[in-house]
Amino acid sequence: MVKGKQTRVFICTGTGCVLSGSMKVKAAFKSELKKRKISEIDIVQTGCHGFCQQGPIVVIQPEGFFYPRVSVENVPRIVEEHLVGGKVVEDLLYEDSLTNKKIPLYKDINFYKKQNRIVLKNCGLIDPEDIDDYIEHGGYKAFKKVLSEMTPEKVIEEVKASGLRGRGGAGFPTGLKWDFARKAPGDIKYIICNADEGDPGAFMDRSVLEGDPHSILEGMVIAGYAIGASEGYIYVRAEYPLAVKRLGIAVEQAKKKGFLGKNILDSSFNFNVKIKEGAGAFVCGEETALIASIEGRRGMPRIRPPFPAQSGLWGKPTNINNVETLANVAWIIVNGVDKFTSIGTEKSKGTKIFAVTGKVKNGGLVEVPMGTTLREVIFDICGGVKDDKEFKAVQIGGPSGGCLPAKFLDTSIDYESLAKTGAIVGSGGMVVMDKSSCMVDLARYFLAFTQKESCGKCAPCRIGTKRMLEMLQRMTRGESSEEEVVLLEQLAEDVKVSSLCGLGQTASNPVLTMLKYFRKEFEEHVKEGRCRAGVCSELITYVIKDNVCKGCGVCKKHCPVGAIRGEKKQPHEIDVTKCVKCGICMQHCSFDAIYVAK
Amino acid sequence: MPKISLTINDKKIEAESGQTILEVAKENGIKIPTLCHDPRLEPYGACRVCLVEVEGARNFLPACATEIANGMVVKTNTIPLYKIRRTIVELLLSDHELSCVTCESAGQCQLQDLAYELGIEENRFEGERHTYTIEDYNPLIERDLNKCILCGRCVRICEEVQQDRIYTFANRGFDAVVTTPYDRSLIETKCELCGQCISTCPTGALTEKMSRYKGRIWEIEKVKTICPYCGCGCELELQVKDGEIVRVSSDVEGGINKGNTCAKGRFGYDFVNHPDRLTSPLVRKDGKLVEASWDEAIKTVADKFSRIKKRHGPDAIAGLSSAKCTNEENYLMQKFMRAVIGTNNIDHCARL
């Protein structure tokens, strides 16, 4: 044995890695170590590393050797060669997509090198089910400092001075929000952590909840102390069972350690946290709908004012912050305002996590300083577009965000700069697209989502998004007109300015930005009946090149509707009247003889 | 109440603090359209047709829910607002059964009025329409969801005024709908069939079953009266056509009840024209009830009371008064028992 007691095997058990088999990998490590009677090496299950494309991820600490995509079969080798033999298993290491070089250490991987991890600092590095691990990494230090050295007013002053803004989407100054809640009259006040992350493709909150739940609790107790609340709720979506479980463990551990409960750390401050599971409504991420849901009512937004800070949960002053926002708080208290304000732009301080997905080489969670450009995130950190195809667009901010073309790649990521383009920082979803994405179809997709998730309360959102969706559906089928494109734009504007809550007010954003930047594609659909991306099935036909087709019959065998005819060893043909455009024939052709005619 | 000064459509206005833009506008003769608003209910802000422009505000604000503030500058009649209202009404009409020809609410439908006001002849928005078949076999309330605009007034009046929760919303998006627990008929819920939901419905989605095809708003005469059922003294409007009551409503702005009635007041009017109704006093002669004059009937009663009192003393007589009588009538009744008959044996059915 070359390594000492401190050698630990960190296995990622975030949802992504669990899905790609990390629990089996963990079991394999356990049995392998047992077989060899090695007891000095601990196996630690951690939260998400954010590099989900490379899961299951195994990190050997303390050096930080990084093994991506570890399978059960790889485990004996890692144990034999690395843990016992002290030699890195070269061929299992991460290979950089740009240089094709093997990179042994976590910190040298490009994906991490250019990030600045404040919120995700512990994710993947601590055992999320062990409060001691969190404390060893500086956890609850901020809370102790707040409780022993700072008045509530001083805490609020610090948060105000840090310039921290809400990470849930709207970017409202957090300190100001706390101040409103503190100054609101009333002896009972509440803190709510909004963990109802619902944007398709966004999973930063989940990763923090699963990977570092105590950082959220610490943020909540500090907020509770600051505004004068003694009770907090975490509203977390039930679709995150691992997050719910780990939050539950964290709350119990924090109670045992005396960070929650009565007379916390021998002070007069009391604070308890309850976990409330959501029931799957996207709109419950909207604060007033969320409050209604906790109260046991249907999740529907109500008009503001009164704002939750004046009258929130059970009619009491309530402060609601997003997971990512709260996870910043302890860092600010410990590291100081100056350090936080040195990161970011003039008006957008600190970092922001983006969930990068779509046609990108290295998707995952990326935490970057505000002010980083889109290009840096997509190309420098995430390695650029998959298969080195041409970049077409990026959708930022999920279904409430906007879609930006290549000319905006050098746009700085901050609240103000993105708003100027028609997109928003939003919750931080980032979907990268190449030319195989159809903008009309994408607009249809996002609108189908918002329409389905509209609560139905206000007419513009309930019916307006439905009519917009129908127009887009007609466009993808080539059944629309140029007049309808104009009408779509008008309706999108009307829905934006007349809807009751943020859901309706932002539902038009994808459509409006796509119409602004990719109008030609809409016109091609309605004027020429052409989908240049080859996505809209009603506008394309599958064709077999008779000079390439070998007549092997594989396509014919796989066609689910019997639309392909042809003799063996003779070029085959697709009957367009029967073809349902499923594309299965093209997937199975070994000779690239089938193509999509647009 | 401190006074506040503001401007609506360039008109300088003084108003009481705590009022909404809608209330102040109405008091000053400025019309702002509404659909989901009912003065009996808490502001809701869902239909969005009352949106107005307020100087300095980031968005358009719902007049029904926005409190006035000193120095506020409000515009209710700009082109962008007109366009939004038009879009919203067109959207609502695009999923609304346009059977105005035979609709009970034609002529008193707020959606119809607004469509007329905005001159909507053609609808730019077409698409899927809901077709609901609701067979609610309760005897009184007709529910036609094909005409529902989801303003939530029925849901809210049931909860906020009646303190009941018979209606609720279900489903999301375009398929959001007002329904009852487990989608049951009203009589399978704890609904008391008070009909308050009908009173607030702005369209023909909720109507009186008994009034079906009996007469429309322009054919009827409204007669103000006091409800005959209890001592509350609710003000009712009898909607009368050809001498017959076809519907009972109540004015939201009048009476002590402010438009609210119970089931009896709203639906219990069939006795008025009923053939079995007594129209003159009856006196029993030789075991048979025979029509008599008031003088004869009262004399008979007076004679018999006097006889009993003489023979058995005043305490042999007791009086039981009715909640259907007015307070004044009940006062007279006890006075009669105490002063004329000479007994304290007087009670009232409301005490039982």
How many E-type strands of chain B? 16
**Major sheet of chain B:** 5 strands, mixed
What's the shape of chain B? elongated
CATH topology of one domain in chain B: Ubiquitin-like (UB roll)
Tell me briefly what this model is.
Chain A is of the alpha/beta class. Chain A folds into 5 domains: 8-109, Glutaredoxin, CATH 3.40.30; 131-339, NADH-ubiquinone oxidoreductase 51kDa subunit (Rossmann fold, 3-Layer(aba) Sandwich); 351-434, Ubiquitin-like (UB roll) (Roll); 439-528, NADH-ubiquinone oxidoreductase 51kDa subunit, iron-sulphur binding domain (de novo design (two linked rop proteins)), CATH 1.20.1440.230; 540-597, Alpha-Beta Plaits, CATH 3.30.70.
Overview of the structural elements:
The complex is a heterodimer of chains A (598) and B (352). Helix content of chain A is 39%, strand content 15%. Chain A is an alpha/beta fold and 598 residues long. Chain A has five domains: 8-109, 3-Layer(aba) Sandwich (Glutaredoxin), CATH 3.40.30.10; 131-339, NADH-ubiquinone oxidoreductase 51kDa subunit (Rossmann fold), CATH 3.40.50; 351-434, Ubiquitin-like (UB roll), CATH 3.10.20; 439-528, NADH-ubiquinone oxidoreductase 51kDa subunit, iron-sulphur binding domain (de novo design (two linked rop proteins), Up-down Bundle); 540-597, Alpha-Beta Plaits (2-Layer Sandwich). Chain A has a five-stranded mixed sheet. In chain A, α6 (141-149) crosses α13. The model of chain A has no long low-confidence stretch (mean pLDDT 93). Helices cover 24% and strands 19% of the residues of chain B. In chain B, the strands form six sheets. In chain B, strands 2-1-5-3-4 form a five-stranded mixed sheet, with helices on one face. Chain B has a three-stranded antiparallel sheet with strand order 10-11-12. Chain B is of the alpha+beta class. The radius of gyration of chain B is 26 Å and the shape is elongated. Among the domains of chain B are: 3-77, Ubiquitin-like (UB roll), CATH 3.10.20; 313-352, no CATH class. Chain A binds chain B through residues 281, 283, 298, 300, 302-303, 305, 451-460, 462-467, 470, 487, 490-491, 494, 497-500, 505, and chain B through 43-48, 51, 59-60, 62, 65, 67, 80, 83-84, 87-88, 91-92, 94-95, 124-128, 149-150, 152, 168-169, 171-177.
